[in-house]
Structures are given as C-alpha cells and as structure tokens.
Design goal:
The complex is a heterodimer of chains A (about 140) and B (about 550).
Chain A: E1 12-16, H1 25-36, E2 40-43, H2 50-59, E3 64-69, H3 74-87, E4 94-98, H4 105-111, E5 115-117, H5 123-135
Parallel strand pairs in A: 1-2, 1-3, 3-4, 4-5
Chain B: H1 3-13, E1 60-65, H2 70-82, E2 87-91, H3 94-98, H4 121-127, E3 137-141, H5 146-159, E4 168-171, H6 176-182, H7 189-206, E5 210-211, E6 213-216, H8 218-222, H9 227-247, H10 252-255, E7 259-265, H11 269-290, E8 303-307, H12 319-333, E9 338-340, H13 353-369, H14 383-406, H15 411-420, H16 423-440, H17 468-483, H18 486-501, H19 508-516, H20 521-532
Parallel strand pairs in B: 1-2, 1-9, 2-3, 3-4, 4-5, 6-7, 7-8, 8-9
Classes of the chains: A alpha/beta (about 140), B alpha/beta (about 550).
Chain lengths: ~140, ~550
C-alpha cells in the first residue's frame, strides 16, 4: 500500500481538467498544496478526455486521480470517468474538487467518488482527503 | 476662472442633467465636482470620462445572464428589462464558447449549464425574440467564436428589420486574455489576432454603435492575479490590439473610440478605486503619446465592471450580498460606465431569479440612495486615493517595460512572447497561491470561511439545469440541420475556408453568409481549423 512516510515512495496524483471547463485557478493551487505536502503531482492540464486521464494514470502508476469541475458538469462527467477507470481495471480513488452543490454529494459518493472538496477547502483538508482516499 | 475650469464648465453646461435634485438627502446642495484641474472629462481622464460624471447619465445596469435553452434565457432577459435593467449581457455555455455544437462529444454534460446553448442562427433568433434590438444595447461574452456569434446577431437584426448600423453593443472578442487566463481559445494567437483585426475593421466601417473588443482584465483577476497585474496585462493586451490594427493600416482615431474595457471590482476598496483611475490615465497617455491618437475619444478608457465572482463564498452565502454592494460601490466611485453585480448564490450555482434580482437591486440602491451620483470622482484629491492611483500606474508601467523588452519595442510581440514563455500564467498562478496561503494560515480573514464561521446556514435554494435541456437542444439542432438548404451550407462553408486562406480578405462577410444558411457554429469553426490550426496549452503548475 502506498504511503508517503519514510522508505516509501511518495503518493502520486494525476490532476486534470476533464472536458471543456477552463477554470484552472483551483486545480493549480491544489497541485501546489499537494506538492508542498510531499506528493508527486502530474498535472495534465486542460481539455482532457477520460481516455487521456486513464492512460496518464496507468503510465505514471498513479495512486489517485483528482479532477476539478466548475461548470456543473459533475453529474455527467464523474460517472463517465468512473466507468472509464472501471473498464481499464484502474482501481484507484477518484477525487473531485470544485463547485458541487450539497445535494449532489451523496449522488457522487454513491457512484464511487472517493472524496469531494468544495470551494475554500483548507490545505490540510485537501491533503488529508488525498491521504485518506489512497490508504483506504 | 481658469481655462481648464472654463472648458469643463462649457462641457458640463452642454450635458443635460437627469431630473433629480442634486443635493444630499438632508437638502445640502452640492457642486458637480470638487478639487483642481484636470477636471472630469479632461485629459488624461483620471477623474472620469465625462464632465458631468453620473449627473447626466447613470452607469448602465447590465446584468449578465444565460442558461439552458435560448427560450429560458430570453425569459430571464425580459425579466431583467422589466425590473429596470438597461442593457443585456449574454452568457454562453461552454460548448458554444469553445466552438462545439450541442451534439458534439465534447458537449456532454455541458449543454446549457454555465450559459445558453447557441448552435445556429435559429437559437439566436429565439434568444432575442420580442426584444427591440434597435433600443437595447447587448453585450455578448464570447471570444474564440466571436466572429460567428456577431454574424448571427447581425443576421437576427436583418430578420427583424434592424440594420447592422443600428445595432448597439459589445462583443468580448478579447482573445489574448484567453491564453493568459480564461483559456477559451480555439486557434493559435496569430490567426486569432487576424480574426480580431478583421472584426475591428468591419465594425469600424459598418457598425458605428458596436464595440468589437472588450479588453478584459476580469478573467485575469478571477484566475488569481493582483490588482496591478489585472490592470497591466489588460492594458498591454489593449496596446497589442492597437498595434495589430495599426499594422493593418487602420486609423487610430477611427477604431480607437470603438475599443472598450472590462474590469473586475474586488474587495480591497481603495486598491480597486486606484486601479480604475489609473486605467483611464495610462490608456489616455499611451494612446496619445505612444500611438499618436489626436481625437480625445480615441484616448478614453471606457469600461464595464463586474464584481468579483471569485470573492463570493459558498459558506454563509448571504454574506455575499454585502461583498457585492461594497465592490459595486467601488466601481461607481471609480467611474465605471456599466456594472454587473454578482448574485449571492454564484459560488454554488448559476443564480436563481430572486438572487439575480437582489443583485440588480443592490446597484439600484448604490445609484439612487447613496449620493454617489452627485459628484464626479468624489474621492479625487484624497491623498491615499491619489497615492494608490500612482502606485497602480507605477506597477503597470514596470510590466509594460518588461513586455516592450520581450518584444523588442513591440508590445504586441511582447504579449505573444509572454504567452509563449508562460510569463502571464506563471505570474497569475503565483499570486493566486500567495493569497491562498495567507488565507490558509489565517493571516487574511475571509468572513465565514476561516473566521466567524459559526452560523453557516443550510444551502440556499439553487438553480438547477436539468439534463433534459441537453436532449432538447440536440433534437432542436437535428431539426435545424434537416430543414436547411444543404447546397447553400456547403458553398458558404467553402467560402469561409477560402477567406481564411487569404489574409487580405475580411472574414466577416463570408461568415455572415454561412450563418444565414444556418451553418452551425462548429461547422464554421471547422471550416477555418485546417487553415488556422488549434492551440494547445502547455500544462504549467
């Protein structure tokens, strides 16, 4: 089981923006927060597809995938991402950050999203969410 | 009376005042301006563009709206006009902004979510149905496919017997800041600039009431920049458009007055006011001294302002009403020409009708109850405000010097180089992270987020866009595609490609012909892609 303690390799996280949404302020901040916490961050950038994200996660041997969503596309895009991960036998946690109304949170967690980080989530919460998801 | 005061007085007298008493609520009569020359309406316009300030005309209350289908947004437009809104502002959904139709694979989950879906002229006809386009001014926030959407608006006008010369409004069309901040680009920078200069040329000649570019700092700030960088990057982009138009042989006194700006109003009250005042002064000086404008109208930095969406908190969302009021007041004190006030629920979703109405009411309170309209530039002369104005200018000039050097004496080339080498995105990301760390460390308090957190209420009632919108829009597009004249579409698209290949031809006329044929936005974009290519950003953290 990967962990970021001594003698273990650091947690590797693939971060990406799936689809057309170009709001990248949050994900770039998250990338730096995770990096400052000692994790290895692979930021794929904008306009990624489920296929490009799965491929990168496999190639980088990632421990988790983090997607950022600000355009209310989460109910369509998160299940699509989970399905693509399932089809590829990629058994790592998917974490969503961005604007997700409270009522949608159980919908996404029931579908298999490991954690959801809302706007203004403090750095410790972001780091803890990734660590917990990975060690689960 | 000094010469400057006399010229000011003449201009002031020539402007009919609004029919309201120009006295405080306690009955104290007040002068239209206080302090020394240069006065409002005088170069370099630090104190405002108009001698009479808001006494002759208040700012335009322009509320940004767009969601779901064209019919949904049309209903919201009519609602805002009925409640005293004085201009329209259109938000498009992501597929439309990126040049994809609603039936594209890229559009999944995005149709009508963050704005209205427009695929063909048929959608634009519905969007502005029942609204007299010769009477309202319309702003359209779109960049990559701006030429296509402007063409659609012209065609809607034609169908309603409104000549293009009578259409008033603004299309954002500020492609440079897309590479720097908002990231809604299609083609690479240089061919995109050709489209922009074609639009400037076309509207200068044929649409005297149209602003073909709204040079926007809003998104730069939202992406995380400082106030000074918002100011500097925006004006530098403005200089870049000026240089590009001059290189095409266009007349600065003719196109200069058509350029307009769009700034953010964030929470640091005096910094914002200094930024607005500095923007007018810098633009006037550069247009006159560096680019040789001689007509004062070509030196005037006219701007729209929107309160800072990024400052809205999901926690205790009602607090956002107070934030928006203060940010809106700063914009008015800074002399904005038009204003959008954000709705308190926008950190969570698109605004509900009630939230949008409260936001409009907020700026009506600022305009009609605070007395901010009585005196032009009421804070001018205050030592801190003047110092802040100078400081904003100083920081901006340092950025211009850097870009000028990067571009070997050309700001346009400097901006291209800064896009290429990651200067803009790097500076923006650094500033965003710095602020985030301060908030996280508790050094900077955001009420309801990292302090005063007790009393976080249940989530507000939110606007939901159901997924039926997507299905409905796809069917509608299918029907339009079925009913149109296919030969007309094919020929019109071929003409767009041919025009793209020949840089001496203006792209607007063939694009107008293509939208008249009900070619879709994506089809028209695809007609240009083989010639112009597509832009892919390097992922830099």
């Amino acid at each position: 089981m990967p962990a970021d303690g001594l003698n273990e390799r650091p947690i590797r996280v693939v971060l990406a923006k799936l689809g057309l949404d170009g709001h990248d302020r949050g994900i770039k901040i998250v990338a730096r927060i995770l990096r400052d916490a000692g994790m290895e961050v692979i930021y794929l950038g904008l306009r990624q597809t489920t296929a490009s994200i799965v491929a990168a996660a496999e190639e980088e041997d990632a421990d988790a995938i983090g997607l950022s969503m600000h355009n209310a596309g989460h109910l369509a895009l998160a299940p699509k991402m989970l399905a693509a991960m399932h089809d590829a036998d990629l058994d790592i946690p998917l974490i969503i950050g961005g604007i997700v109304p409270d009522v949608d949170i159980p919908v996404l967690t029931d579908a298999g999203v490991a954690a959801i980080l809302g706007p203004g989530a403090p750095a410790e919460e972001v780091v803890a969410a990734v660590r917990n998801a990975v060690s689960r | 009376m000094t010469d400057a005061k006399e010229t000011w007085q003449q201009r002031f007298d020539a402007t009919p005042p609004r029919d309201v008493p120009f006295e405080t609520m306690s009955g104290v009569p007040v002068e239209p301006v206080y302090g020394d020359a240069p006065y409002p309406g005088q170069y370099p316009f630090t104190r405002g563009l108009h001698a009479a300030g808001y006494r002759s005309r208040l700012w335009t209350m322009r509320m940004f709206a767009g969601f779901g289908t064209a019919e949904d947004t049309n209903a919201r437009f009519r609602e805002l006009l009925r409640h005293g809104g004085t201009g329209l502002s259109t938000a498009f959904d992501m597929p439309t902004l990126m040049g994809y139709d609603s039936d594209s694979e890229w559009a999944l989950g995005e149709v009508g979510r963050a704005g209205v879906a427009v695929d063909t002229l048929a959608d634009m006809e519905d969007l502005y149905a029942g609204i007299d386009l010769s009477k309202v001014s319309t702003s359209m926030t779109i960049n990559g496919p701006a030429a296509i959407v402007l063409a659609m608006y012209i065609a809607v006008g034609e169908k309603n017997q409104v000549a293009r010369a009578d259409l008033a409004g603004t299309i954002q069309n500020d492609i440079l800041k897309e590479y720097q901040a908002q990231k809604e680009y299609i083609f690479p920078p240089r061919p995109s600039m050709r489209i922009v200069t074609d639009m400037i040329d076309f509207t200068s000649a044929e649409m005297p009431r149209w602003h073909p570019v709204s040079i926007s700092g809003y998104h730069i700030r939202e992406a995380g920049s400082t106030a000074a960088h918002e100011l500097a990057f925006t004006l530098a982009n403005g200089f870049a458009y000026v240089e590009a138009a001059l290189a095409e042989g266009q007349n600065i006194n003719q196109f200069g007055p058509r350029l307009s700006f769009f700034f953010n109003s964030h929470s640091d009250f005096f910094e914002e006011i200094g930024k607005f005042r500095a923007a007018r002064r810098i633009w006037a000086r550069w247009m006159k001294e560096r680019y040789g404008a001689t007509d004062e109208r070509a030196m005037m930095c006219r701007f729209h302002t929107q309160t800072a969406g990024v400052s809205l908190t999901a926690q205790q969302p009602e607090n956002n009403i107070a934030r928006v009021a203060l940010q809106g007041l700063a914009a008015a004190l800074g002399g904005t020409q038009s204003l959008h006030t954000d709705s308190y629920d926008e950190a969570l979703a698109l605004p509900t009708e009630k939230a949008a109405r409260i936001a409009l009411r907020t700026q009506q309170i600022i305009a009609h109850e605070t007395g901010v309209d009585l005196v032009a530039d009421p804070l001018g002369g205050a030592p801190y405000v003047e110092w802040m104005t100078d400081e904003m200018e100083r920081q901006a000039e340092a950025v211009f010097a850097h870009l000028d050097e990067l571009g070997n004496g050309s700001i346009l080339e400097g901006v291209y180089a800064g896009i290429e080498n990651g200067y803009f995105v790097g500076e923006i990301a650094d500033a965003a992270y710095r602020l985030e760390r301060q908030v996280n460390a508790g050094e900077r308090i955001i009420v309801g987020v990292n302090d005063f957190t007790e009393g976080t209420d249940d989530e507000a009632n939110l606007l939901r866009i159901d997924s039926e919108t997507e299905e409905y829009q796809r069917k509608r597009l299918e029907a339009v595609k079925h009913d149109r004249n296919h030969q007309h579409v094919t020929d019109a698209l071929a003409a767009v490609t041919a025009a793209a290949e020949d840089s001496t031809v203006n792209l607007m006329p063939p694009i107008i012909e293509a939208v008249r044929a009900y070619a879709t936005e994506e089809e028209i974009v695809d007609a240009m892609k083989p010639v112009f290519g597509v832009y892919v950003e390097k992922a830099i953290v």
